[in-house]
TrEMBL record:
Family statement: Belongs to the archaeal-type DHQ synthase family.
Enzyme Commission no: 1.4.1.24
The protein, known as: 3-dehydroquinate synthase
Keywords: Amino-acid biosynthesis, Aromatic amino acid biosynthesis, Lyase, NAD, Oxidoreductase
NCBIfam families per the UniProt record, alphabetical: PRK02290.1-2, PRK02290.1-4, PRK02290.1-5
Molecular function in Gene Ontology: 3-dehydroquinate synthase activity; dehydroquinate synthase activity; NAD binding
Function of the protein: Catalyzes the oxidative deamination and cyclization of 2-amino-3,7-dideoxy-D-threo-hept-6-ulosonic acid (ADH) to yield 3-dehydroquinate (DHQ), which is fed into the canonical shikimic pathway of aromatic amino acid biosynthesis.
Taxonomic classification: Archaea, Methanobacteriati, Methanobacteriota, Methanomada group, Methanococci
One record GO biological process: amino acid biosynthetic process
Domain 3-dehydroquinate synthase C-terminal: 187-361
Record-annotated 3-dehydroquinate synthase N-terminal domain positions: 1-173
Reactions performed catalytically: 2-amino-2,3,7-trideoxy-D-lyxo-hept-6-ulosonate + NAD(+) + H2O = 3-dehydroquinate + NH4(+) + NADH + H(+)
Source organism of this protein record: Methanocaldococcus villosus KIN24-T80
Top-level division of the source organism's lineage: Archaea
Recorded name of the encoding gene: aroB'
Transmembrane segments: none
């Protein structure tokens, strides 16, 4: 996931305060600030501060500072970072060396004469290292370039904003960069059958959904059905555009990062994926989970010879998404209908996709 930090500098505290407040409002997680501003920043809200101080949440040193200062920070349980201006090849080599120290979490790079090539080299060099590469940028356009270098891009950026609008634009860019794209396929309905009562889960999120959006849920880790949100006008109940009536408690739900959880595990504050009919995915925060006993319906579909299933509440307002992108109530669903699913050949171990043979039926 891409992230962004905001650099808070200058002599005027009132100007710096406004930048911190905008960072808070824009869900920017970290500000980079002078040590003397740490306490005042903390009074403004719950935001992390990166600074050259052991009182900071993220302790930064410059390339020529005593490395033992960073070791001490790590011993205190702090996140760590090293700031390296890239003025020549030797600085690039230094960054590569420091990134291999086990107590360095972040490498912050500022290109002087060259901005792209050193980042390309270090991204390739440190591809599988457990260290985050962060680029210093002067505007949102530079941030986008940094995020996209060599496709993988930098993990984050430190933006020196020229205006409060820059902070909002960076937040929008991060949201856009972190969107996932899910490959959806079509499965053919084979059976729709009432099976009695059981516990089902409604997921109420802190986001509003629109027609065509829902969540990917399934009884098996290899087959997730796109269960539509309660956004469709109907004569029975008011719409609940923040809700997906997702199915029985045992079901898997696809979460950010291609991870899964059981519906019964979800709680307020967890993150789930909202997915639309075209496979565009965005994160949403769970605000509430409601588990209630309701009549259930078994839905069975075939995908390339394989049978996948989902168990949903038996009610008119519960819908899957058809091949054409339109929602279909499960009371109208019949054999031969085509619905959208995500098929995955991976098995799951504690929600993580793994290459292992598993039989689910």
């Amino acid at each position: 996931m891409k992230f962004g930090w905001i650099k808070i500098d200058g002599d005027d505290w009132e100007e710096k305060k406004e930048k911190v407040k905008m960072a808070l409002e824009s869900s920017i997680p970290v500000v980079v600030a002078d040590p003397e501003d740490i306490e005042k920043i903390k009074e403004l809200g719950n935001i992390k501060v990166a600074s050259h101080s052991l009182d900071a949440d993220i302790v930064i040193i410059n390339k020529n500072d005593d490395i033992n200062f960073l070791k001490k920070a790590k011993e205190l349980g702090k996140e760590t970072a090293v700031f390296i201006p890239i003025e020549g090849k030797e600085d690039e080599e230094l960054a590569s060396e420091i990134a291999r120290f086990g107590f360095v979490d972040n490498i912050i790079l500022k290109g002087e004469d060259w901005k792209i090539i050193p980042l390309e080299n270090l991204i390739a060099d440190l591809f599988n290292r457990d260290v985050k590469i962060i680029a210093c940028v002067d505007d949102v356009k530079e941030a986008k370039t940094a995020y996209e270098i060599l496709e993988k891009g930098t993990d984050g950026v430190v933006l020196s904003p020229k205006s409060l609008e820059d902070i909002k634009e960076l937040s929008k860019l991060i949201d856009e960069m972190n969107k996932e794209k899910i490959k959806l396929d079509t499965a053919v309905i084979k059976r729709v059958e009432p099976i009695g009562s059981g516990d089902r889960v409604c997921i109420d999120t802190c986001s509003l959904m629109s027609i065509g959006e829902g969540m990917l849920v399934g009884s098996y880790s290899r087959g997730f059905f796109l269960v539509h949100s309660e956004t469709v006008e109907n004569p029975y109940v008011e719409t609940r555009p923040f809700r997906v009536n997702a199915g029985a408690v045992h079901s898997y739900i696809l979460c950010p990062g291609n991870k899964t959880k059981y519906l019964s595990e979800l709680k307020a504050g967890d993150k789930v994926l909202i997915v639309d009919k075209d496979g565009n995915a965005r994160e949403a925060i769970v605000g509430r989970v409601k588990i209630e006993r309701r009549p259930l319906m078994l839905v069975e579909a075939e995908y390339k010879g394989d049978i996948v299933r989902v168990i949903l509440q038996n009610a008119e307002t519960i819908r899957l998404v058809g091949k054409d992108g339109n929602p279909i109530s499960i009371v109208d669903l019949k054999p031969g209908d085509e619905v959208l699913i995500k098929y995955d050949e991976s098995a799951r171990h504690f929600g993580m996709a793994i290459k292992e043979k598993i039989i689910e039926k």
